[in-house]
């Protein structure tokens, strides 16, 4: 099945058919020549030798690495995804001469149908980032993952270093302003109290997103609850898998 998107002013069916046929043609296969090294292929007389011997891992560690590197079989995509939904140049009500000019003036990932342009012509700041610094060693403070979360990871074939996202909404802020929560969260990240974390505030949707490795997600959630006085449960989301855990 081939889906061809075309602009409203490009309605020549013959050209569109030729374009689609050319896109699905098989690429020519060329036989690659045999590789010939440009240096003496003598492994016993290397000009440079490493100062240290290579590291050695046990059989158990090798099996664990092999298990963690197994690709996931449960990756699913969104059936309703439309790559041209918010592109002005594909809208039928936009004239051909205005397409590129209007497309270049839109930079914000917002709904174009409901969004009004700013009055002064300047783009307002809709979101900000806070990125964690290299964190200290917190192994003695971080407990093993709960059994429920371990079962979910095993079921979805996710390893502990997958990135996950906690979402803070106004409903869990315990009568606090979302901007005040953002300021406190920035302070926690700068003080290296949230390992592997980076965060962003999405002011257009009224949310704060905290990204972290699954290995530290429960520890991060407990710190957020304690330091920011958050209430209710928060959902842990992983890209393409949705909500995998609630705490």
Automatic annotation (TrEMBL):
Transmembrane segments: none
InterPro entries referenced in this protein's UniProt entry, alphabetically: Shieldin_RINN1
CDD domains in the record: RBD_SHLD3_N
One GO biological process term: negative regulation of double-strand break repair via homologous recombination
Name of the protein in its database record: SHLD3 protein
